[in-house]
Amino acid sequence: MPGETPAQPTLLYSLYCGASALIAPFAWRKVAARLRAYGLPETRVRERLGHASLPRPGGQLIWFHAASVGESLSVLTLIRRLGEQLPRAEFLITSGTPTSAELIEKRMPPRCRHQFPPLDSAAAVDRFLAHWRPDLGVFVESELWPQMLVRARRTGCPLVLLNARLSERSAEGWKKRPETARFILDQFDLLVTQNQRTADNLAAMGAAPERIRPGSNLKAVSAPLPADEKTLADLRAALRPRPVWVASSTHEGEEETVLAAHRLLLQRHPDLCLLLAPRHPERGDAVEALIATAGFTSARRSVGEGPNPDTQVYLADTLGEVGTWYALSPLVFLGGSLREIGGHNPFEPMQAGAAVISGTGHFNFAETYAELTRLGAATEVTTAEQLAEQLSLWLQEPEKLEAARTAAAQFISRQSDQLDQTVASLLALLPAQQQEAP
């Protein structure tokens, strides 16, 4: 706030720094083993120690840091828009998982590169910053590493917390440590939240109110997931004229409900096919066993099988193809929600033109689903019977499905203004001479 003394490092932060120095060797062994097991070369593994595997490009560099696949992919549309406004700018994305790296590198905008982030130890962070020298750092959602923030800010790099999301539990925990919370939040020049509740919580935790801007979920304005046209055409040919529904991003303990719903649906729609895409493809064997135990005929994508006229369940246990599944059918159940898992991104199926059915365990998207259900763009269920009933309604009364799809499309279109505001806010943090076009 104007006139306030900047927050100073606290005892808790100092203890964290000391502990991170002690833990760093053990953390390094763990993350290095995980990356090596994925088959990455040693040069990439050592990025976690701050050793860059790519040269720093000349000129202005804007750095985005995200944790998960979804968070990483959500910034690509923003980077493209910034790239249009800043034709001289270069971009760096850091994310911690091999899966996110693989998907990002397939979809990166021009003048963009990916690296794994340094461990949150002084040596690794300083090595990373000395090489990349970012002109702006953008941290996505809730990926806050204290030393990374503090040491980046000390270099003079403006920092932004973008698409901020904070659970009530996390907010209450931080409020018990108000001095440290304020010190960490004081590193940010701008905090753009997904909703008003997070904005209020950040202010209560000590963030300067004039730096907080409530926004919308950045994932709502991401580019639609890619769909492979050949795969899509082959599936349509194999399934025509049968109706299809998609159960996407399901977790352990959810497939049983999905399969029970499918059994009920087959009583009314005997030619219906379920495309089942588990969140973690490595669970394919277990899910295939569930399908067999339930007595359904099936085919499995990961072994090269396609559906035939007798296939009741098509197991899509592959990575990076969900955009094709959403393009195949507008009837989508989104997993991670029948149990208290937190839910998954509802914007991806809606961007593909689908209507969404979800369980109620979607606390990571609670406010979004509240609005979507109010608008009629999404429906919540808790049982196999409710899931089957909703799908059957949409199959029997296509005008109701079309109304839900229209509501979803209208919701997505309203989010574009928020993206423009975010771009303008980021541009305002860059020195004027760096914003000039050639």
The number of E-state strands comes to 14
Give the N-terminus to C-terminus distance in angstroms: 36 Å
Record the strand order, biggest sheet: 3-2-1-4-5-6-7
Secondary-structure-based class equals: alpha/beta
Helix content range of the residues, please? 40-55%
Per CATH, the class of the largest domain reads: Alpha Beta
The DSSP helix count reads 19
CATH topology assignment of the largest domain: Rossmann fold
The number of domains: 2
Largest sheet: 7 strands, parallel
Structure description:
The protein has 438 residues and is of the alpha/beta class. It folds into two domains: 11-215, Rossmann fold; 229-414, 3-Layer(aba) Sandwich (Rossmann fold), CATH 3.40.50.2000. Helix content is 46%, strand content 14%. It has 19 helices and 14 strands. It has helices spanning 11-37, 42-45, 69-74, 76-85, 98-107, 122-132, 146-154, 168-175, 178-185, 196-204, 229-239, 255-268, 284-293, 322-328, 347-351, 366-375, 384-396, 398-414, 416-428, and strands spanning 61-65, 90-94, 112-115, 136-140, 159-164, 190-193, 212-214, 244-250, 273-278, 298-300, 313-315, 331-334, 355-358, 378-380. The strands form two sheets. It has a seven-stranded parallel beta sheet with strand order 3-2-1-4-5-6-7, sandwiched between helices. A seven-stranded parallel beta sheet has the order 10-11-9-8-12-13-14, with helices on both faces. The longest helix has 27 residues, at 11-37.
